[in-house]
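Record type: monomer structure entry
Structure origin: computed from sequence
Chain ID: A
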Amino acid sequence: MPNPSPPAAADAVVIGSGPNALVAANALVDAGWDVVVLEQQPSLGGAVRSAEVAAPGYVTDLFSAFYPLAAASPVLRGLDLGRHGLAWSQAPAVLAHVTSDGGAAVLHRNADDTAAGLDAFAPGDGDAWLRLVDDWRRLRDPLLDALFTTFPPVGAGLRLLRRLGTAGALRLARQATMGVRRFAAEQFDGAGGRLLLTGNALHTDLGPEAAGSALFGWLLCMLGQDVGFPVPRGGSGELSAALAARAVAGGAQLHTGVEVTGVEVAGGRATGVRLASGERILARRAVLAGVSAPALYTRLLEPGDVPARLLDDLRRFQWDHSTLKVNWALRSSIPWRAAAAAGAGTVHVGADEDGIVDFAADLTVGRAPRRPFLLVGQMTTADPSRSPAGTESAWAYTHLPRALADDRAVLDTQVQRLEETMEQAAPGFGDLVVGRHVQHPLDLQDADANLSRGAINGGTAALHQELVFRPTPGLGRPGTPIAGLYLASASAHPGGGVHGACGWNAARAALRDNGRAGTVRAALARTAWSRVLR
């Protein structure tokens, strides 16, 4: 699909080919722009790629794997990717959090089934879960619109406020600033519901006491209850392939193995890009950078083109934790002690409520976790096409401090602890392994430069780096202080996750700035930036 050599000029140059970059390319070709996408790696997709790495016939999602945000995203749903080969698949159950006594809290596809399981932990907790689900159903559409649009989300925010009322808005604001441990304790008497909320919050880099973790835990639980945790049939790479196919059908040119070494700026405006080959590509209208904020401002731009205050702010940019991932090809399904985990696509393993606090504390102080918390993917359970009948393609990842990302002794120990944790939760697990593939943090970075030292979220999800603080204190928008240059990666609002909103927002900003009123609008935006950066 990628073209053999890039052109000398295009209306827009998109750097990178992750989901945000490909969404941006699609939005621009839909508007009639001439678009070229440049990817440094030999294959498209960024952190949405799959391959047979553990054993032949076993498809592994190399980075991201489950996509509740994609299923709920109005951006991705609006692209109608089914017409370009994308099909979704789901496990019988969404998620299970196994406990040390052989039990499990299970998020089922049906809310009543989830509630019944939580009642077994404490009578009344099922009703508490259904109240959360009712709240979600009432707020869902305006809330998702508010999350996925540029800041401030005026229209969606007003619709949300009308549904909530003043009192409800204040309660939601309180929830948005809470730690998930406290929020879960207020909602549930038993451990089951608390584990679902807390475990899902740890899909970010936020600990259970961190402000804002309650919102993320609740959001992922409710998305799971609403749309499930779907996977692309055939591998995560099929999502990227569909995005790429749609962009090409619209006229975009995609090029792999092309490294962009700089963004060219003249008269305060981005005019194109420089390539490692020495070639230059002119951007007649815009450059959209699907790279991390630090990479854009400190590597691709010359220091003299970036305001000094922005460079100073970037020294405070906080990455999320490093990630260590082990992929397995198994001769049969995982023999969980908790039988209820067998049907779940995603399984949380290795820590109860207090254990999650200890795990987060280890990360906070820069210590290799003594008892790792694992997020496990049972990919064949979610999609039978991933491996031969009766087998399982599985993986598990855990986090560790960034400072330890290249400490081989620590990494080897953590891999051992990870596999010991799996053996405790599923005795006999090790005997089923017919193929094994380890991805260290720097392996992840080598495969996708945006995954700095194995960080998978584009920067911390903590409140101090969200909304108008993402990636630095600014306007919460994809525009930059340089005209015609837009940040289209997870470093921009609304942040990590495969939803496409970062790329969509960047493309829409570029289109607006090139419209009839765009010159005035862009000038006002740059004036606002200059005030922020003084």
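Annotation 1: The chain has a mean pLDDT of 94.
Annotation 2: The chain has two domains: 9-42+256-317+471-532, 89-231+319-447.
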